[in-house]
Write a structure and sequence with these properties.
There is one protein chain. The chain has helices at about 5-15, 25-30, 30-35, 40-45, 50-65, 70-100, 110-120, 125-155. Helix 6 runs antiparallel to helix 8 (about 125-155). With about 200 residues, the protein is mainly alpha-helical.
C-alpha cells in the first residue's frame, strides 16, 4: 500500500507532466504511436517505404487537424485507405508488366487489353485486386465523410432561440383595477315596506 509521502509525491509529479501543450507538440505526440508502434509495422509491407507512409500521415494530420482520439482515428483510416489504393494500383501495374512478357510479340506494344481480356479465364487476379482497391476507396470515402461531419458539428454555433412575435402569442402585461367589493354589514336588513297607519 502506498504511503502518504508516496501519494503526495505522485500527485506533485502528475501536476508537472501534463503532456504536450502546443499545437506542434500535440501533432508530434500524435505521430508517436504510428512511428514507433504497431501501426507502422502493420501497414507497410516489405518493399514499401515506411517513411513515405509516415510522411503521408503527417501531411494529412497537418492539413485536417484532428481533435481527439476519434478524429485522429478517422485521419488514420483516410491515410490507410489512400495507402492501400496506391498499393493495389502498384500491384496491378506489376502484374500487367509480368504478364506482358508472356504475350506474343505482336501484342506487347499494347498489352493491357489482352491481359484484361484473359484475366477472367484464369485466377481473376486483376478482378480481385480491383475489388480490394474499391473496398479501400469505400473505407477512405466513409472516413472522410465522418471526419467532415464531426468537424462541421464542432464549428457550428448554437442556434439562437426562436422568438415568436405573432399577435396570438404576445403576452399582455396590464394591471386592471379590481372591481369594488360590496360593503359587508352585520346588521339585519330592514323591511322596505312602509307601515300602514290605522285610523
Amino acid at each position: 500500500m502506498s504511503t502518504i509521502a508516496q501519494i503526495n509525491s505522485n500527485t506533485a509529479n502528475a501536476q508537472r507532466s501534463t503532456g504536450p501543450r502546443t499545437t506542434d507538440g500535440k501533432a508530434a505526440s500524435s505521430r508517436n504511436a504510428l512511428k514507433y508502434g504497431i501501426f507502422a509495422q502493420a501497414d507497410v509491407l516489405p518493399g514499401e517505404d515506411p517513411e513515405a507512409f509516415l510522411q503521408l500521415y503527417i501531411d494529412y494530420t497537418d492539413q485536417l487537424r484532428p481533435e481527439g482520439i476519434v478524429e485522429a482515428q478517422l485521419v488514420y483510416d483516410i491515410v490507410r485507405g489512400i495507402w492501400l489504393d496506391l498499393r493495389y494500383t502498384r500491384i496491378e501495374g506489376e502484374i500487367i508488366r509480368l504478364r506482358a512478357a508472356d504475350l506474343p510479340e505482336d501484342q506487347r506494344a499494347n498489352p493491357a487489353p489482352h491481359i484484361y481480356n484473359k484475366d477472367p479465364e484464369g485466377a481473376k487476379i486483376l478482378d480481385k485486386i480491383d475489388r480490394r482497391r474499391n473496398a479501400a476507396r469505400r473505407q477512405l470515402a466513409a472516413a472522410r465523410k465522418e471526419l467532415c461531419r464531426l468537424q462541421s458539428a464542432r464549428h457550428v454555433p448554437e442556434p439562437d432561440p426562436v422568438i415568436d412575435t405573432s399577435a396570438k402569442n404576445r403576452v399582455r402585461f396590464t394591471n386592471p383595477t379590481p372591481d369594488p367589493e360590496p360593503p359587508t354589514t352585520t346588521e339585519p336588513k330592514k323591511s322596505q315596506e312602509t307601515p300602514t297607519r290605522r285610523l
